[in-house]
Amino acid sequence: MRKARLVESGGGFYHVISRVVGRERLLREEADREQFRHIMRGMEAFSGCRVLTWCVLFNHFHILLEVPPCQEVDDIELVRRMGCIYKAEKVEAFAQELARLREAGQGKYAEQWRAPYVKRMYDLAEFVKTVKQRMTMAYNKRHNRLGTLWTERYKSVLVEGEVGALKKTAAYIDLNPVRAGLVSDPRDYRFSGYGEAVGGVEQAREGLGWVVGGGPSDWSEVSGEYRQLLYLCGKERGLAADGGPVRPGFSEEQVATVVAVKGRLTLNEALRCRSRYFTDGVVLGSRSFVDAVFQRHREYFSPKRQDGARPMKGAEWGGLFSARALRKDVITPVASPA
């Protein structure tokens, strides 16, 4: 029997990963990745969850998602949010029936009318399910295709909202296009949180503001700090003649060489590699955070375990721990650009 996913009551941060069925590269067309972005942002506005950053590639996606504690949603706000994902005719019909029930003093039936929509808010599983279902329908319609687009289950890692865990997870996500060899600079990949933010998308800038500053922040300050984290070699200082940054950081070959000789990577080097801790670690954060989650969700883990935190191997992780002691393929070199 498969375990239920580890989900905190009262809100939390999650790194969500899901792959295309058979790992086929079905999302090669930009129109499909743009469709994914549109669906995800719509569900963000509807659900009350916040996308801190994200990335969709040819055969999978990553989302760093904040799921706040459940909040009361009144009728006016519910109708407004429904307009973010439903057609105007459906929203209008819903609003009219809800108003009729309220005016008739049928509060019980009005709540039943609202319930299917309200229960999909502030919920990790509902967020991911809706995004995947709507993307499957849109993709199949566009490509005259049948069947699911995604593998059945998604992965999620609970991420601590302190001690830099959010920053490191966000950087890992936004560096995906570099690791895949699609771009040499993450700002050039627009189907990601950082690419959107550089392009002026306010939602993306706000998301990274929460990652870097823990709240609404000035983008001119956020962009410099976050780019330092991504480029790992200090702030970018202008552009070279070939369009690349003057201070581009270490090369893909350098990282591959270090990994090949089993050298211990710095945090910055590790973020430029593929790391299973960000996809299979279950919980990510400081020792105290992972141990506290372990105690709250004791039934999720083996009865033999005495504590939750496990040291992360293969690099200097800056105080981060994982709930899983991964042994094989912890870090693998990046792909060479095509």
Question: Could you name the key traits of this structure?
Answer:
338 residues; alpha+beta; two-stranded antiparallel sheet; 2 domains; Alpha-Beta Plaits; 7-stranded mixed beta sheet; 14 helices; 9 strands; single chain; 43% helix
Annotate the secondary structure layout.
Layout lengths: L11 E8 L10 H18 L2 E7 L3 E8 L7 H8 L5 H16 L3 H12 L5 H20 L11 E5 L5 H10 L1 H4 L13 H6 L3 H12 L5 H13 L20 H9 L6 H5 L2 E2 L1 H4 L2 E3 L1 H10 L13 E2 L9 E2 L8 E2 L6
Parallel strand pairs: 4-6
Antiparallel strand pairs: 1-3, 1-4, 2-3, 5-9, 6-8, 7-8
Helix pairs in contact: 1-5, 3-4, 9-10
Order of helices and strands: EHEEHHHHEHHHHHHHEHEHEEE
Helix content: 40-55%
SSE class: alpha+beta
Distance from N terminus to C terminus (CA atoms, Å) equals 41 Å
What is the annotated CATH architecture of the largest domain? 2-Layer Sandwich
Strand percentage, roughly?
Answer: 5-15%
Number of strands: 9
Q: Tally the structural domains.
A: 2
Average pLDDT, to the nearest integer?
A: 85
Unreliable runs, pLDDT <50, ≥5 residues?
233-239, 245-250
CATH class of the largest domain, please? Alpha Beta
